[in-house]
């Protein structure tokens, strides 16, 4: 998967100082250790290999199979959660939201369901509603670090970076050194153009033993945005083919060469 797919750059937003679209944050925050790597188990069709290693065609086929199980029994919690997850991964955010609305009706007090519902709302652009849903899923006596991180991601999308970073730090108090939270915290600083601080947190995230591929790709992005393209390519190439890593860096170069985006980021840094 190329950097175009992972980060959905917007030239207009880059040129005005916003480095990367926030969808990746909202999708990764609730996910925690599993996220896009695994699906909830249950009486649904089993997948032959991890979701993260599938290409677009395979993801679409998996979504179709899981979707058929969901249609047979819309009340099935696992089928609904997995179907919505696959729909989001294939870019069908509105459909994923519709699925999660139904799942939430059948399981209104389920924290995992509410968290996934909030994530679907955020992916579909319903940020204020997502924030309310995530808040409803959280309980003061048993706070969930994944929900704290998800709330931070939504607050970042709303431009409330100080509140977002407080939520990430609260999540880290509950789950020290969690790479997905450290990564979201780093991306929060990247979005306010503090590239050096962003790189610090992303390096810490990438150094954790259970850091996923998306964490290292975020680090490659932060490094590349500082003009260190060869280093970014090396980081990205740890898990990508050489062609994919080169495509990522080439795309980053092309974005930063347009509309004075790199000059504005460099001035801010």
UniProtKB/TrEMBL annotation:
GO terms for molecular function: mannosyltransferase activity. Pfam families: TPR_16 (PF13432), TPR_19 (PF14559). This is Tetratricopeptide repeat protein. SUPFAM superfamilies: TPR-like. GO terms for biological process: protein O-linked glycosylation via mannose. Residues 1-31 form the signal peptide. PANTHER family: PROTEIN O-MANNOSYL-TRANSFERASE TMTC2. InterPro entries: TMTC_O-mannosyltransferase, TPR-like_helical_dom_sf, UCP035836. Keywords: Signal.
């Amino acid at each position: 998967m190329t950097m175009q797919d992972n980060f959905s750059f917007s030239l207009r937003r880059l040129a005005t100082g916003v480095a990367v679209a926030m969808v990746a944050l909202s999708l990764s925050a609730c996910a925690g250790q599993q996220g896009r790597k695994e699906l909830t188990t249950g009486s649904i069709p089993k997948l032959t290999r991890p979701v993260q290693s599938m290409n677009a065609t395979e993801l679409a086929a998996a979504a179709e199979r899981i979707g058929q199980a969901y249609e047979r029994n819309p009340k099935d919690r696992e089928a609904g959660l997995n179907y919505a997850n696959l729909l989001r991964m294939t870019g069908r955010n509105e459909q994923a939201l519709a699925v999660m609305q139904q799942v939430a009706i059948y399981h209104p007090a389920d924290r995992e369901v509410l968290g996934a519902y909030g994530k679907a709302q955020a992916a579909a652009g319903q940020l204020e509603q997502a924030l309310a849903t995530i808040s409803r899923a959280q309980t003061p006596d048993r706070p969930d670090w994944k929900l704290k991180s998800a709330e931070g991601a939504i607050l970042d999308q709303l431009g409330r970076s100080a509140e977002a970073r407080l939520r990430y730090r609260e999540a880290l108090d509950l789950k020290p050194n969690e790479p997905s939270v450290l990564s979201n915290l780093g991306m929060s600083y990247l979005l306010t153009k503090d590239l050096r601080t962003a790189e610090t947190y992303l390096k810490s995230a990438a150094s954790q033993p259970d850091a996923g591929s998306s964490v290292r790709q975020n680090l490659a992005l932060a490094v590349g945005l500082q003009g260190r393209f060869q280093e970014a390519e090396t980081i990205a190439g740890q898990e990508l083919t050489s062609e994919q890593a080169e495509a990522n860096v080439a795309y980053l170069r092309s974005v930063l060469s347009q509309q004075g985006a790199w000059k504005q980021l460099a001035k801010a840094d």
